[in-house]
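Hi! If you just cloned this repository, the fastest way to understand the data is to look at a raw example. We've pasted two of them here, unedited. The first protein comes first, obviously.
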Amino acid sequence: MVSIKSKNLLVLLIEIDENDPQKIISQLEERLSKKFFSNNAEIPFLIQAKEGVEEEVVDKVVEYLTQRGFSYLLKPAEKKGTKPLEVPFNFENLKGNNVLIVNKNLRSGQIVEHAGDVLILGSVNPGAEVRATGNVIVLGELKGIAWAGYLGNKDAVIVALKMQPQQLRIANLFAPVEDSIKDKGRPQVAKVVYDKDTNTYEIEVQPLV
């Protein structure tokens, strides 16, 4: 059986608990509205495979959805005759890690704190805060505060589909938000880089793709 946990135009969260790819694909065709099956949709999706589901089954479902125009968030899509898409952050790093998935928007005053990676399937509104010892991924608008690697991990990153934060923090560093975000209309990734000229670390924000 296949379950669609989220269908909010930001991301599709699909849960799989069996090993019959054809049956899963048939259920997806039945449950997803035809308006989602558009080569121009490019709606991102994630797959949660329950214990016992074979990796080959997941791969076939991913292949089917990407062929129908959806965008798999955990692995950049590859097309025949083209090079793999290069991105500053590889979502494959989330696999197997301690990931907290929050399937809602965060309102002002709400705080999410987690020892591991945090994946927000929604937006972080002004006054809300996300803290993670690992990465912070926001599949929506980041308008609040995001603090990745808050125990000192400078390798952590912050990703948002729309980056308009009140504050960005990675480890013990702050980002000069207004100066660092050049193209707010595109998905962005914030990460720590080393500046040889000043011999210091700083947070740099750049387009995700």
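Ok, and the second one:
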Amino acid sequence: DQRHALQPGFVRGQGAGALPPHESGLECVALVDGRVAGLCRFRDEPREDGSAFVGHLGRRHRIERVLLISGDRESEVRHLAERVGIHEIHASQSPEQKLALVRAETARAPTLFLGDGINDAPALAAATVGIAFGQGSDVTAEAAGAVILDSSLSRVDELLHIGSRMRSIALQSAVGGMALSVAGMFFAAAGWLPPVAGALVQEVIDVAAVVNALRVALPPRSLIDYDAGLPGLRENSPA
């Protein structure tokens, strides 16, 4: 009866000998004539670029802490965390526990939560920035602030650089435009800038701010600054 052949109690009861010691991960025991003939162990492995991606977050993106929050068993979560260089883990977490953790961390500092499942939706909505990763559900996409359809960490890095670059250019245009306008008002109030010339200068300032903002549409040389292990891709600083 194949339904009972893989149950340890049944095997031992038939005198097939002790099964191999249990380890973490999914185990599949092969039996031949009621005796253990082989054992296959399956466990999740991180992406090839996982360690490089995690390692560059603090250096390139000023991320102070990286946490791995998962509903899987602690042995599996710890195995993955050790492989990619994450030192703080929270295993066997329910959606409610994930939400509580994210809320607690967000109360202390801005947070970015990367999730790929329906049970991550509450945490995605609670984080400062939530990124839905991969081909998730509509619920996950609605809860997240950004959605990455391609399940690649290099795309996450691109998104981080795009957001940082857009913010930098927006601040340059806004702050620079206001600073030049204030300077023009000072010169006009001092009588050094006639009204007509002042109006022309203000128009030039407005056009300069708009032109600078249009730089967002120009693609930089690279949006990935870590070794993603992709052919022809080297670690570069984005323009």
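That's it. A detail worth noticing about the second one: The first strand starts at residue 26 and ends at 32.
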